[in-house]
Amino acid sequence: MQKFFVETKQIENEKITIVGEDVKHITSVLRMKIGENIQVGNKQTGENYITQITEISAENVIANIVQKVEDTAESNVQIDLYQGLPKADKMELIIQKTTEIGVCRIIPVEMTRCVVKLEEKEAKKKIERWQKIALSAAEQSKRDKIPMIENKINLKQIVNTINDYDCFLVAYEEETKNSLKQVLKAMEQKENYQIGILIGPEGGIDSKEIALLKEKGATIVTLGKRILRCETAPITMISNILYELEN
After folding, report:
1. Does CATH number 3.40.1280.10 belong to domain 77-245?
2. Residue 145's pLDDT band (boundaries 50, 70, 90)?
């Protein structure tokens, strides 16, 4: 069943009004008809509904709520991805795939070895595009929540957030002893987790950056014997964290 997200204000009196680009997608791409069912999620609350289309026009699609979906697609492991800025097409892939897997927030990071620089004048448009990719991936994977794509930050801003997490993990190709598996196995058993992870850009993470992160409490880990691309590493890391910690 196809899923769409709406704002709280679009839900009223057991009816949901779908507007904007989703109307064209429902009518022209999916060619859906009155009487067919769609799943609708509330962007603000994470609540989900099975609905039945009752009206279709050029401006909107109206659907009656049939039932509220009680099951959740969200994890007890909340993962924030701090991603060293890669080239644009790689960032789009990272956002799409990590959204499907279950990431909560994605924060672009300017680092020493970043080839790409996100200029202020283009940052707003880039983030808007990235947020649309996250929305589409959340609909496809039937997430309850859409990951937020935050404004870019630098490493000095990251170190101030490390202690906000149960664990802040940094994937580093020159780490040989401390594996992700060992760290996750040693973690205290909890009902819910807040995990931060940092992945470097194409050129990796500079040794001075690693030293600063260690000093501020980050845990440096290896992801294995093979060197992963910057777009492969976050997918691998998030998948392994969820496998080990998710209820």
Report:
1. yes
2. very high
